Amino acid sequence: MSRPAVPEFAMSRKPTLDRRAATPAKADTKRAPTLAGLRADIDRIDKELVDLLNRRAQIAAAIGQIKEAEGIEVWSQAREEEVITRALALSQGPLPPETVRLIFRELMSGSRAIQRTLRVASLGPKYSYSHMAAVVRFGKSAEHVPVGSIAAVFEEVNRGHVQFGLVPLENSIDGRVTDTLEMFIRLPNIKIRGEVRLRIHHCLMAKCAWGQVQRVYSKAQALSQCRHWLGKNLPQARPVEVISTAAAAEHAAREEFASAIASRPAADAYGLKVLAANIEDQAHNVTRFAVISEQSERRTGKDKTTLLMRLPNQAGSLVKALALFEKGGLNLTFIESFPVPDATPDRDPSYLFFVDVEGHIEDESVKKVLDAVRKKCERLDVLGSYPRSDCIEN
Predict the structure, then answer these.
(1) What is the pLDDT confidence band of residue 314, given thresholds at 50, 70 and 90?
(2) Comparing C-alpha atoms, which of 114, 104, 59 is closest to residue 82?
(3) What are the DSSP E strand ranges found in the chain?
(4) Using CA atoms, how far apart are residues 186 and 4, in angstroms rounded to an integer?
(5) 69 — pLDDT class (breaks 50, 70, 90)
(6) Which residue, 111, 165, 327, 363, is the most exposed by fewest CB within 10 angstroms?
(7) How far apart are CA 151 and CA 161, in angstroms?
(8) What does the alpha-carbon distance between residue 299 and residue 358 come to, in Å, rounded to a whole number?
(9) What is the structure's pLDDT at 91?
(10) Contact indicator for 167, 137 with CB cutoff of 8 Å
(11) CA distances, 100 to each of 55, 194, 392 (Å)
């Protein structure tokens, strides 16, 4: 029997060796990271960080010497905002933005202290919202001077006891802060140098249990911002006004069956339990604070200007003045009326107006409009031009 013919292409094929199967797999020589190795990496990075931080501080000190020689103030909100904004843009995580902001804030605060220790007055004691806003703007390396009233903050600046003060200007719920506006009327030589927009979160705190609370201490504005929550959840408790939210926490720490509305850091500082957090009636609760000093800030291109206007007590005077801002293409972001302090019982009161307008007093467009507005006013004071600020969580 003849063998079947084998196709020519089959005869030309040679058996092949599957080298992948024949070659033994290489052992994975990459080792998993160890705790000791990772800690060694941290130690090396920390050394590099410390060296870089001190090099940066040396450069900052040299800048301070140049500023002093040229008569330039050590602190500049615009420059510090620029540094923080750049750092946030460069950061790719995993550190959250607020952590990066905090690190750079304290880095600049410490570097500033090498040049000159700044004294900053605010409504105290520590852990009040005014104090917290002062720390947000100047860091912990500044010397923070707590005083007992808003008027005292202005007086400390006016007498040269401190370089800066920090006062509440307006709240998104309650509007204007009367004590602050009144002091600007009395001391128009004090200028707004910057601002802090702080998101306010109120906490109810006490040493006793919720059901035992008989009194709720806080500043008038804080009680007002939580009045609906208090009426619903603590109808039996009596609200008691005190000078500041931090002072309220002190009362709650000393007195039996007393509570306070204040910040969470205040609860930690005075050993109080947070019975309820974020009790403000409106979620968007922002207080704007003014940084005050004896001089205005330089132009940055992202500014606002605060004005104090006294208009004739006659029909249409306010409308005519405001129309000039619209005609000049300037946006108004804040306007508040305030009765003139020298009003007498025998005549109708007239009003002063506080106005915020976008732009700097050195901008030609702002100068032109103010020249026209001044002709409509009995009094026009420029309370300061300063950089606009973003809102910051407390």
Answers:
(1) confident
(2) 104
(3) 119-123, 143-147, 164-171, 175-176, 191-199, 203-206, 215-218, 238-241, 258-262, 273-277, 286-293, 303-310, 332-339, 351-358, 379-387, 391-393
(4) 119
(5) confident
(6) 327
(7) 14
(8) 12
(9) 94
(10) no
(11) 19, 22, 13
Vertex 217 angle, CA 154 and 214, to 5°: 170
Between the alpha carbon of residue 133 and those of residues 42, 60, 144, 255, 289, the distances in Å are 33, 24, 11, 28, 7
Q: Is 145 helix (H, G, I), strand (E, B) or coil?
A: strand
Amino acid at position 315, single letter: A
Residue 273 to residue 301: CA distance in whole angstroms: 45
CA distances from 136 to 79, 98, 119, 141 (A): 15, 11, 14, 11
CB 85 within 8 A of CB 100: no
Looking up tokens 């004590």 gives 179
Q: How far apart are CA 142 and CA 144, in angstroms?
A: 6
Q: Which of 276, 280, 275 is CA-nearest to residue 199?
A: 280
- Give the position of tokens 């800030």: 297
| C-alpha span between 262 and 204 (Å, rounded) | 7
Q: Which of 332, 393, 366 lies closest to 99, judged by CA?
A: 393
State how far the Cα of 180 lies from the Cα of 216, in Å rounded to an integer: 25
Alpha-carbon gap, residue 30 to 53, rounded angstroms: 34
- Rounded Cα distance, 244 and 125, in Å: 8
pTM for the predicted model, two decimal places: 0.82
d(CA 384, CA 336): 16
Percent of the chain residues topping a pLDDT of 90: 68
Q: Are strands 215-218 and 238-241 parallel, antiparallel or unpaired?
A: parallel
Q: In whole angstroms, give the CA distance from residue 369 to residue 305.
A: 12
Q: Minimal CA–CA distance to 233: which of 279, 269, 187, 198?
A: 279
Give CA–CA dist 83/104, Å, rounded: 8
Could you give the 3-state DSSP secondary structure of residue 32? Answer: coil
